[in-house]
Structures are given as structure tokens and as C-alpha cells.
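Hi,

I'm pasting everything inline rather than attaching a file, because the server keeps stripping attachments. The sequence lines come first, and each chain or strand is labelled.
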Amino acid sequence: MAGLMAGFGHYTHAVVRGIPASLAKEALRTSQAEVDLTGARTEHDAYVEVLRTKLGLEVVELPADESLPDCVFVEDAAVVCGETALITRPGAESRRRETEVMKEALKDLNLNIVEMTDENATLDGGDVLFTGREFFVGLSKRTNQRGAEILADAFKDYAVSTVPVLEGLHLKSFCSMGGPGLIIIGSSEPAQKALKIMQQMSDHRYDKLTVPDDIAANCIYMNLPDKGHVLLHCTAEEFPESVKVFEKLKDHMLIPVSNLEKVKVDGALTCCSVLINKKANI
Amino acid sequence: MTTEAGSETEVKEKAEETSAQPDQSETAEQEGQEVANVEGEEKEKGKEKEKEGKEGKGITRYLPTWFKKQKSQSQTSPTKEVPPAGEPVCKATEGEEEPAPEVNGHAEEVEEKEEVKSEEAKEATAAESDSTASAETEPAREEKVEDATAKSEEKTKEAAEAEGAEEEQKEKEPQGHVEAEADGGESQTSIFQSPLRLVRKNKMKVVVCRVTLLDGTDFTCEVEKRAKGQYLFFKVCEHLNLLEKDYFGLTYKDSHDEKCWLDPTKEIKRQIRSNNWHFAFSVKFYPPDPSQLTEDITRYLLCLQLREDVSSGRLPCSFVTHALLGSYTLQAEFGDYEPDQPRPLDFISQLTFAPNQNKEMEEKILELHKSHRGMTPAQADIQFLENAKKLSMYGVDLHHAKDSEGVDIMLGVCANGLLVYKDRLRINRFAWPKILKISYKRNNFYIKIRPGETEQFESTVGFKLQNHRSAKKLWKVCVENHSFFRLNAPEAPTKARFLTLGSKFRYSGRTQAQTRLASSLIDRPAPSFERTSSKRISRSLDGAPVISITEAGSETAENGRDPHLELHSDSKSPLRVHGDNIYVRHSNLMLEDLDKTQDEVLKHQASISQLKRSFMEAPPPSPPQPNQWEKRLTSSPATTIRVQQQQVTPEVEIEETVVIQEVSRAVKPGLVPVTADSPATPPAEPEPKPQDQTEMVEEEAAAVEEVKPVKPERASSESESEEEAEYQPNVAASISQTKIPEEKEEEEEQMTKEEERQQVSPPVVPAPPVEASEPAEELSQEEEEAKKEDTSVVEEKKDDQEEKESGRETEESTDDPMVTPEEAPEGLILPDETLVAKPTEEQERPKMNGEASLVEVDPRLQVICCSEPPVVKTEMVTISDTFAAQKTEIATKEVPIVHTETKTITYEAAQLDGNGDGEPGVLMTAQTITSESLCTTTTTHITKTLKGGLSETRIEKRIVITGDCDIDHDQALAQAIKEAKEQHPDMSVTRVVVHKETELAEEEED
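And the predicted assembly:
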């Protein structure tokens, strides 16, 4: 039955969203890079295609909204775990409305919706690392304590530990899960520090896979019925050294996914989808 | 008393043995078999002992808890005919009340046995005197036979408390009933022969206890008024037909309406402090993996507890999990879903599954229930537990607290350690292996943290609890959980009971490891039991206030006076480490902490005066020999440190100390000129220092007053080395030991305060001088070592508690529970170091632990290694008080003299990079790791120094092998060297010191 923590990485659905033209100029970014809108859209289409065709997920595509330049990064708008979806209150004022469409979409998927109504709370899904056993919530520029508390309230079964994010946008800007009990972590000092904190806070033991580039540590892990361990990671053009590390994962089906353009607006691989596991029953 | 004619000798012997029990595990390995041979000696001792015995109450007061417990256990094993023919029981309790009778009675029991069993029994009793209070001798021995290793150990008397207890339990559990009947009958007859007993029986006062069980029903039974917690608990377990009982306990509500665990080793009457004999049976230790429980009935009871935890909200879980757990509950209690059942929702809504149960949830529960068709109740329970155990708050015992900034937090004690929550969020976690020490003082609760990879120094994190009571309660829970989940065997009882200051509280039951072992031996058909409906009324006693992590905020500050907690970092903040630090992962090592705290205090006025008396009467000790008084002193927090620095090896028989120095040595900045206080000189007068804390001031003042009277005694006292033994984990099998000091018992607080001051204050010498003297001390120590060929490892220990005592406590405000050394307030220096390092004949204790690193870290000089002649063979007679340290009550009168041959051989690599004593270097890091296995103790001390731009890492390994003659020394040494090489392939072995100590005269130490 749908026991707790059963089937980490099992997903049936993915929610994605189109890229508005406004992304190129207006999307929030920490660097000043020029974004090639077409390139970004091509990239994103390829990403969605991997989810849909290669991995066989049922993809729900939400329309882009020009007034929400960052709306492609759906991860920040909702945290889904099991049957429950927490609609977040994104830390960036300009992104708050991104949740509206997301909420409707998740409702349609029959998830239990929990909304973050507290006006003192902010939370970006990018700061939420679910390991299959517990949550780590990065306290960053975008996510505060109150937001983390509400998340803890929404997912009562799990321990929710907070991790200060001193550098980088989000917690998942330098880490992600690479499998059950495997954390992929960047090698920068802040990343390593955060990992230590996570290890200290946890009752569970995690293996770590350290990659040279922080952003390359953001991967998408899935465990799919006929494919086993699947890892979507950066391409060799972007981070050749990190890819070498991934190639050591012998049990994983490795799928490089290009992210050259979106990364310019701080978009990592996980940012562009919300993964959902809908069971036939329960 | 009740001793029969002609048995006097034996009685004495017994008494002696009884009292000797505590140290057996550590010391008297060989003795067991020699009991007969040495009887003569023993008799002599016995006489001395007898005197002591007459001193009466004081002694038994200090019997270790395990000892008491065992006795009571045998008596409390509920016999069928309990209330009417419960002699054993009442005898037990009475005996415990009155020390002297107890001892005799105890012996008598054995004696009776001996009449029947003749010699066998005698042999057995040597090893089992502790565990075979009444009629258990035979079964116990049978058990031994089963277990070969255990048996051999037992012969050597090593069985001591850990094994003894275990065996006893083992035997008791599986065979409980049969035995109870048979033995009960047997002892009954003999008992009836004693008219005295009959009299006692008549005097017995019986009280009716009401125990609320997990299914909500009440169980009432009569217990003798003086019965111990254990008796009642066993009665309940018997009623429940529960064998795996170690996970459970009884609770009562104290006068403040707070739920407390009934201490099995103490009288019920004294705990409840009211006439409300109402208890609740509850899960005390939530097994992390319930599937490892042996019996379904145990799992069922655990389920009942969890159902209540869940439905009351104490164990928070999501909607889905509520529904899932509820569905398993239905399956377990009602079987398959009945489609025909009319209006199932009505029926289900009468059951409580969740705090906020609603129709939707009930529908979901029913829906899921349907899917469990065919599942047996036991399977449903297993599924229930498999899901419940994964909940993050499973088995977490929450306590309200405030952090250093006065922010409300919750502290959660669980199998893995201590969790810190703010609202619902986990903000920190301290796994047991990370915790070196747990202590409390007043309403403050402290944990001392092993330095992490990024830290060089230990730090102490403090939390404020609502009051002293809750701090103590939290401390106790921590002690118990740590012992249960982290140790292989319960920590040795405080050894020097007589000298014990402060609470003796330790976890006395079986550890999880032991109970699992015992469970694996359960051999009975699965008992049938009836599952009751979930229509539980909430139990009046149990839940008490439901604490949930979200509630923290609602707590009001009871003591708002000072929201800031003091955090002490043992490191001196001026000392910063330059360069990289080495960190050796040791998470898989067994860690041990030897240090003690200041919080240990005097126990009882009476015992003190007794102590003084005995001090006066004591045979003139050879100079270095610590006397009882001194020992007593040393058990006070302040003195602790001195003790630790110079410890006597508890192992007496044969000991091998192998020090493998793999590294070049750290050099000390040979600065600080100092005057080491000679131990022999009267302690400097404590000068109260400027206090930042009012409470501190109070204490200090008191201390000063008291000091003078004490002086004379102190003057003659020399070394206080063995105090340590008291807290030294001597359970060979223990996985790890955390010193868990407790503040004085509440009850005794008032009484002992004065005394405590006396004891404590002397060492609390003006800190500055002390600091200065530290270096010198080390030097002297070093010299001494060189001279003696003792161990070449300098041990330093520091006690943060000490610091507190010294009043230099800085009100540190480290808000963040995750205190890093940098943030931590400046560490304080131990005043006591002065008193240490006296060249004494005593062997240094071959142990180091985390504490040691503190000192090493000290910027002041560190001499870590001392030069020794390459090969030395010495023979010396060591008059050691070792025994006394552990011994306790007996020791008062008697000066155990142990003659030992000591042989030290040093192999030194030629290229040894100088002994570099004079060469200054900067100590960068120091770390000590101790691991312990059955007969070896390995202490690894790692220091890293920066010398002339080069950093040196030096590892000293000290391996103490204890055992009787059978040890193949050469092999052991070879093995040790080999292991060292393997572990650090990139290092070279520069020196090997073999120190062998053999006991020459066979001494029957009680």
C-alpha cells in the first residue's frame, strides 16, 4: 500500500509551463547574461519531450503568462509529496501569481491542496529538498522560517529541517537527489557546508556524490517502472567535469539535458517541472 | 541477625562480595575462582568489612542501583502466590530498607541454598551473589552453561553487573513461571523456618495500586507498601503476559501533575509522594524497528500506545497516514471489512483515530480497510508499526525549553539522540555519539558536544528549562535513552557508592541490545491475547499534557529572569587554530567520555561524617595514596579534574598498555613558568571571583565559608586519582559511554549543599594562578612519566562544569544551538589542574577521551610526549587504591594494597623527531578517541601542531588489554602495531611502549 516513503522517485505526472517572451528581459536573475529566447524555448521543448516521450510521464503543460516572466520555473510554485500539494508563497513578489494556475492544475490532479496563506511566509519550491525520508528546507533570500513551518505542517509525516543557504539562489542550486539516499552536491564551500548540516540534522545516512560544479548538482532523479534509476543531468558541453562524475553512476539511466539558456536566469533542471506520483488508488 | 549459627564467615564473605560487586567487572577478574583459596584473606577483610557493615545505613544507601535492583528483582519476580505467600517480596523490601539486615539476609539466602547445593552453590554464589538474592541460583547457573563465554567470564567474576544482570534476566524471562513456582516453593519452606520472617510478614502493609493499561482498562493489585517500582511493574507485565518488557515502564503523576517514570529501583512510596497509587503502563522506549520484536503481544501493546499517541496528536501525521493507520487498526481489531455491516460510518466514528477526525477521514479509513482483507490481526499490527515507525516524531519524547536567547524550542529525546525543534522545524540534532556529556544544573540543561569536522573544540550547548524539575526529568530521560539505545549494557553503577556525590541515577534496566538478545531466547507458544476496541477512553494518566512541537511558543517563561543560557566552549577563544585542522572520522568508533561534572555532589551528611571518621581511622596511607576522604573530595565536581588527570588503572590483575606513537610529537611552547600546586599542600583558599551570575556568587560564598574546616584533612590527602573510577565506564561491552552527570538529587539538595561546598570549593582556587601552573604541572607530569615509565601519554582533562563552578562562567549568549567554537564564549581554564600531576606511584590511567583534547587545545604549552629511556625494566610496588575507587563502601576502612610488577619496555625509532620538549610549536588540533571492547581499551589521541611552518600530526594510541594470565602479550602487541600501521599507512611508528603490570600477590579484594 501507499506506505510512507514508499517508492521514492516514482512519478507518473509532470507539470510544466511555457516560456513567456518576457523571460528574456524581465525574468529575475543574479547575473547579467543575455538570454536567447528561442534557444531557451528550444531547450525547454527538449526538456519536456524527454519527460513525455523518453520517460513516459503524463505531462501537463500550463500556458506561459507574459506578466509572469519567471513562470516557466514551476517548481517554486508548489511542493508535491505523495497526495499533498503545498501551494507556496514565492519569495519574489513578482512571482506570487504563478501559483494560481498551478493550484488549479494540481487540483485537477486530485491532490490535496494546502495553501500558504500566511503573509509572513515565503517559500520557493527550489529551496525544498525532499529526500524520500525527510525534507530539508533552505532558508534563503526566497524562503523564510515561517514558510518552512507551514511546509512542516503540510507534511506532518516527515521531519523538516532547515538549512541556511548562504550563497546561491536556492538550496537546490547546488544539490539534489540522485537516488534513494544519494545526495548530489556541488563542491563549493557553501554547498559542502550545507551538506554537513543536512547530514548532521538527519537520522538517516546519505551517500553523497560530489560534482565540481554547483549548478551541475541540480539533477532530476526518477525511479520508473521499466527504466529503473533515471537521472537527468547537465550536458557535457556545459559541465564536462561534472558529467564525468555522473558517468560513474552505473545503475542509472543517464540523460543529459541541455540547460544553457535557462541557467542564465537561475533556472536549473529541477526548476522546470513539478513531478507527481498519482497512484491508481489511494 | 538472621544468620544461622556457624555461618558467620560465610556471611561476611557474602557481604564482602556484595559490596565488592561494583568493581568486579573491571578488576577482579581472576578472583572468582580463587574464592575458596583466598578465603582466609577474605575473612580478615571480612572483619574489617563487618565493621563497616555495622555502620549501617550509610553503606547500603550507597549500594549501586543495579545492585538493589537485582535484589529486588529476584524478589519481585511475581510468584503465583504473591499476596498471601509473598515473603520474598516483603523480605526484599524490608531488607532494602535496612542495610544491615539486608546483607545478612542476603547471605542467608545463599546459605540456605548451599545447604542444599553444597559446594556448587558456593562457587556459583561468588559470581552471582548479586543476582541470586533468593532462589535463583540454580537456574542462573543453568543459564550459564548454555552460554559458554558468559560462563567463563562469570568464573572470573567479570560477569559483574552487566552480565550478571543479563543472565539473571534471561533466566528469569523465559523460565519465569516455572522457576517462580519451583523456587518459590523451595524458598518458601526455608523461609518458614525462620520465625523472623513470619514476623515480618505480619508487619507487611499492603497498598492497592491501580494501573491503567494501554487498552484503557485498569489493573489493580496489591503491593507491599515498601515495594519498589519494579515489583509493581513486574506484576503488571505478568498480568499482561508480557515478556519483552524492557520497552515499557510505569508512569505516575507527580505533585505537579506531570508525568514521571516510576524508577524501578526505588520504592514506589518514595517516588509518588502522595497517596495516589495510580499508574499508567506505557511504552518507554519505542523500538526503532518493531519488526524485530519477538512476540506479537509486544507489538500489540506498542500498537496500542501508538494508536493513542496518534489519536491524541502527540504523534503527528498526515491525513493519509492517519487513514492508513486507522485502517490497519480496524483490520487488527475487527478483522476483515464487513460489507453487510449496517452504517459502518456510525460505528467507525465512535472510534478515535485522529485528533481532528472527520467524515472524510473515516471514509478513507473504511476504503483502505477494505483493501486489507485477509490480513491477520498480527499482520495488521505489523503494517501499522511499519508505517508508524517512519513518522518523524515516532519515539520522540518532547520537552519544552528555551534556547540561549529565550526562544521557545522543544527538545526531543529519541533513540538516536537529541533533537531540537523550533515550532515544527527541526533546527538541530545531536546524535548520541556526538554528545560527550549531559548535565543539568538548576533549570539549565547542558550537553557537551564533540567537535565536528569543522570545529576544533568541544562546545557546550545550554538550554533553559522551566524549572529544576523539568531539567532533571529531561536529564534522566536522556540518560535512559542513551543507555538503552546506545549501550550494549547499562553503564556500570556508580562505583564508589560510598563516596558518590550527586545522583546515582543511571538506567538500570536492560539495554535494547540486551533485551533483543533475551527476546531471541523466548521460547513459548505465542500467548493468546484479546485485542480490544479502539474505543479507548483517553487514559487519565497517560497522555498528561499533550506536547506537540507547535506548542512551544505558548509556553510562558517561568523564569524570565535570564533568558540567556550560558554556553561554554572549552576552547579558549584566543586560541584559534591556524591552518587546516585534521579531523579523524571516528563515527564508527566507540566513544567514551571519562569526564565528570561538578554537578556531582555529596549524597548525605551521615556518610560524610562517616567518611571523615574513616579517614581518621584509616591506616596511614603511603604518601601517594589517596585516602577515602580525598576520594570523597575528588568526587565533588571541582576536584574531578584533578582526578581525571591522574587516574589509576582500574584493571589490576594484568594490564598491558601499549602506546604506539605513530607520529612526531607536538611541541609545546615552553613558556609559562609556573608553580604547580603541590597536592600535598593545603589547597589555596578559594577566592571568590567576580561573578557574573548571582547564583554562582551564592555558591561561592558558601564555599568559602566551608573551606577552612576542610583544610586539615585535605592537607594530608595526596592524590585523588581514583575518583574517576566512579564514573569510568567499566562495562567492557559498552558501545560507548557518555558521562552523564546529574545534579544533586532534589531531596538532598538542601542537606548536602553545605557539604557540597566544602568539597567543591577547595579546588575552586583562583583561576588565574591555576592556569599559570598548568604548564608546570605538565612538565612535572612529564618528568614523572619519564621517570616512571608509566604511560607516556599526557592526559589532560578539563571539565566545563568545573569552569562553571569556578564562577568564571560567562553568561554566554549563544543563541544558536549549533554552537561553533568560534561563537562560543571563551572557555575557562580549569583551576584544578594545579592539583594534578603529582609524581605519584600511581599509574596513570591509560585512558584518554574527548576531554583530553580540551586541554591539549589549550594555547599554553603542551607536552605530549615524554622521553623515556629506550628500554627500561623496572619493578616496583605500587600501592594503589585502585580498588577503593570502585569499591565503595568497603574501602573506607581498608587500604587495599596491590603489589604489582611493572615492566615497561620502550622501543623507539631512531629517527624520532626529537622529543622536542623544548621546541615550541603551535598546537593546532587535538583529539582523543576512545574505543572499548571486551578486554581492550583503545585510546587514540591525535594532535596536530604547527612547528616552524611544518605541520605535524601525531597519533598516540594507547591500548589497554586487561585480562588474566591467558593473554598472549606478544600477539596482542603485534596485533596492535599491525592495526596501527594499517590504519595510518602513511605514518610511521616511532615509538612503542609496552607497559605490563602484573599483580604479584594474589589479593582477594573483596
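The CA atoms of residues 152 and 261 of chain A lie 34 Å apart.

If the labels don't parse on your end, tell me and I'll reformat.
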